[in-house]
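Hi,

I'm pasting everything inline rather than attaching a file, because the server keeps stripping attachments. The sequence lines come first, and each chain or strand is labelled.
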Amino acid sequence: MKEEFNIISNLIEENTRVLDVGCGNGDLMKFLQENKTKDIRGLEISKEKVQNCLSKGLTVIEGNAESDLKQFPKSSFDYVILSQTLQAFLNPELVINELLKVGKKVIVTIPNFGYWRVRLQLLFKGTMPVTENLPHEWYNTPNLHMCTIKDFYNFCSNKNIKIFKSIALKKSRISEINKSNLNYKNLDSHLGIFLIES
Amino acid sequence: MNKNIDTKKIIISNPLKLDCGKEINNFPIAYETYGELNSEKNNAILVFHALTGDQYVSGKNPITNKDGWWSYVVGENKPIDTNKFFVICANVIGGCMGSYGPSTINESTGKQIGTDFPIITINDMVNVQYELIKYLEIEKLFAVVGGSMGGMQVLQFVANFPDKAKLAIPIACTSSHSAQNIAFNELGRQAIMADSKWENGFYSNYKLNPDKGLAVARMAAHITYLSEKGLQEKFGRKLQDRDSLRYGFEADFQIESYLRYQGSVFVDRFDANSYLYITRAMDYFDLSKQYKGNLSDAFKETKTKFFVISFTSDWLYPTSENREIVIALNSIGADVGFVEIESDKGHDSFLLDVPSFLKTLGDYINSTYKVMNERRI
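And the predicted assembly:
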């Protein structure tokens, strides 16, 4: 978690305007507030989590990214962050498009379904993978659209979405993803972090 | 009801032009305060009351001898902690707890003003309360807070005085009274005016009181403050002090007895004409119309931080209407937080013991106060 926060924070310039979509209990918002910018908002679907955020004094709106991002004007945030949530939406493509409208830049992080530990579980155990990062069973997972680093990378190039930076994370090891090492990073990383722009 | 009570009062001498076109001056506004204003004068919170509320937010209400209407929220060690904050609440203009209203005595005639009182609006209410803030020499309020009609005043206050409050918390309200809201208010008004003792609003001249009409108005309104589920769970078809139906029109059911009781205690503390005037003010409230149909424009001058709260079972001012306020604020990039609190207590949730509401509100106010002080906002 901490590594992911650090990477996200390093992608953001100081004193910019940030929206954290699916902000959960506000841990990333708090982290960014202390390190980068005071001007940060959150959108979260769970009432309980929204209340936790508000209790900490964070500016959070209860809402659903799939229907409520529309209310923000075009380019109203310097950065919009979607941390490990894309896979839980009914329509991830629509959400990415909305994010790219609302934010000048978008940071998306993806739990990598192509990570070798995940692949091995399906290959050898023959069961849906359950890992530290993906702790749910198939019957109770909120994750509807799992994807791999390579999937997202290809999605961006197919949709003409500019990737400014793509970073792979394995445990606490950080490395850059590029076209030539994509297959390897897709196998050896548990998390992908992308800075994109429409 | 214009009893001789020892209320704090100021006389506003500046002429005030009302929305209806009439001008008033030298009129009283009654208020109450709780806690102490600190030396930096940065801990003041202005609370706006709802339709039948008054200035007695907390502690014992000296008129009714009951707890103040927002005792769950305001008081020592409460979510709005009066050990920390200086809380101000004024009786709205048009009210009957000491502020200028239809039951005020006209000194030249020695009689109550009655329906000669001018029509007032939410805008007029907040303009009057602004005078009180000036009188108390508070340059900037930490927060303006209110539920229901109190929430409408929060919105209007920030629109009128964009740099007078750091934080605004409208709760269970709307930016524009809906047809259904107007319909229920009209039902209440017709009940009062249908009472033969109303005498076109001059009942006090005849030592009369349209208490039957006012009680019916209250009973009807009271139903709109509760949820169907809440009513069913609390009362169901339970009978009142009897084992079987009596085959008559007495209060067989507990819900009937409960409503009759709510009506009867209400007429002891509330003036029928005030009920007419204040419900009218609510009906006339349409903030977006004041800004040519664009609600966002009401807030485009302000840097005030907003926190909007609604309740799941509130069908009088439903979440969708509260969300419209959030959407209008978001569309101009204003600083707004929003949550819909789970509760089956209906619109009245904001007045009642709803723990997740009280906790979220209290924590939010306290942490925001702390952050603003640290950053010297």
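Chain A has one domain: 2-114+145-197.

If the labels don't parse on your end, tell me and I'll reformat.
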